[in-house]
Amino acid sequence: MFAIPGKQAVTLTSSAIAQIKSLMEGSEGRVKGLKLGVKKGGCAGMEYTMAYAETVDPHDEVVEQDGARVLIAPMAQMFLFGTEIDYRTSFLESGFVFNNPNVSEACGCGESVSFKVGEEA
Q: How many Å apart are CA 99 and CA 4, to the nearest integer?
């Protein structure tokens, strides 16, 4: 939908690839990838969503990298294009981190973002 020929919509770091592959392998073939999206919420206006995908919708943008597969929901494609997805583990927490060039601001807790619009984008 918002693709540029020869360029993936999102990229995955090696740690994100390892985590996604681990989640997919643990599902015994039921999970076809991780579905990424955005929804309204949080103090900055939008939140990322991530869920197991057992089917691939024909309108999903499918990104495969080294055996890991993410599916981007149609309504999220314009917000996620150019994003690098990482997986970080620290002493207190672990989780996916979105390094998104389309974000104009994020809340203090890092759970919600707002996106550039119009001339800003």
A: 19
User: In this predicted model, what pLDDT tens digit does every residue of 93-115 receive, in sequence order?
Assistant: 899 989 888 887 777 666 677 77
Instruction: Identify the CA nearest to 57 among candidates 77, 28, 84.
Output: 77
Nearest CA among 60, 73, 72, 93 for reference residue 85 = 72
Q: Hey, what amino acid is at 40?
A: K
Neighbours of 68 (CB within 10 A): 21
**SS3 label, residue 39:** strand
Q: Are 63 and 39 in contact (CB under 8 A)?
A: no
Specify the pTM: 0.81
What SS3 state is found at 54?
A: coil
Residues 13, 24: contact at Cβ < 8 Å? Answer: no
**Is 44 or 77 the better-scoring residue by pLDDT?**
77
Residue with tokens 């890991």: 68
